[in-house]
Amino acid sequence: MTVPELSPTTKAEILIEALPWIQRFRDKVVVVKYGGNAMVDPALARSFAEDIVLMHSVGMKPVVVHGGGPQIGQLMDRLGKVTEFRDGLRVTDAETLDIARMVLVGKVGREIVSSLNVHGPLAVGLSGEDAGLIVASARNPELGFVGDVQAVNPAILHRLLSEGLVPVISTIGADMAGQAYNINADTVAGAIAVAIGAEKIVYLTDIEGLRAEVDDPESLIRRTTTADLQRLLDDGTLTGGMIPKVAACIHAADHGVDTAHMIDGRVAHVLLLEIFTDRGIGTMVTKEARP
């Protein structure tokens, strides 16, 4: 499909619409959780990298936290290992932990860093094990080496951001004894946003946002509060992989992050549509109701 050429006037109007948002978010930290189809579709991966570079170029401080579920699953299938999920979390034995560590840190993280650094020496990859970034503990013996975030030490992130760099974080943490754990990327993104004092956290998903009725695209919830989301969790309305995303949004918004967003990572340049346009896109979560 041929994209129509915009007139100079239209281009100017787009820039003017973006201007107040550029001014508002200058020098603000925005944590972006990157996952789903946006990671495996080359065109979407390129547009994601362009979005992050543009955010950086206008003075924002993006921090990327990435998952890698599809890539981990593909390698496990090739190795003949069966994947089991419970409440959206991958059951992780010692061999699965090695696979996750290899895929997240050694493959996916490096690919994201490379895609950003095509535009200049901007990105640095690290895992939660680096510089004690994420202190983890076992979540549940039945889940194996699946971790919870016990603490976040954001010192290394502050140092990288002060140098004008974009941290790209793989979600492997370690306990005080050095045992590694695979931690849900949604959970890690929320914890990092709180610890680093982010203005905003954005989750890229494979759906347009949070739906009141899971099978009804017309039931998209555009704005909601943490209290309303907690009720959806408590009454069992939310299931599967949406649970950790919603729980992380609640945690972030209740602990100082101004807004949390769930947006459709299948849409090209969706980050720019969310951050730099008046209407935004997807679902926005705040602690208190807003106009």
What do these coordinates show?
By secondary structure, the chain is of the alpha/beta class. It has a single domain (23-286), classed as Carbamate kinase, CATH 3.40.1160.10. It has helices spanning 8-25, 37-40, 42-57, 69-78, 94-117, 155-162, 185-196, 226-234, 242-254, 270-275, and strands spanning 29-34, 61-66, 85-86, 89-90, 123-127, 134-138, 147-152, 166-170, 172-174, 180-182, 200-205, 210-211, 220-221, 223-225, 259-264, 283-286. An 8-stranded mixed sheet has the order 5-8-2-1-11-15-16-14, sandwiched between helices. A two-stranded antiparallel ribbon has the order 3-4. The longest helix is centred in the middle third of the chain and has 24 residues, at 94-117. It is globular, with a radius of gyration of 19 Å. The relative contact order is 0.15. The mean pLDDT is 90.
> Which value, in Å, is the CA radius of gyration?
19 Å
CATH architecture grouping:
3-Layer(aba) Sandwich
Strand content: 15-25%
Number of domains: 1
* Major β-sheet profile: 8 strands, mixed
What is the SS-derived class?
Answer: alpha/beta
Distance between the termini: 38 Å
Any idea what the CATH superfamily is called? Acetylglutamate kinase-like
CATH class: Alpha Beta
Q: For the residues shown, what is the average pLDDT?
A: 90
Beta strand count: 16
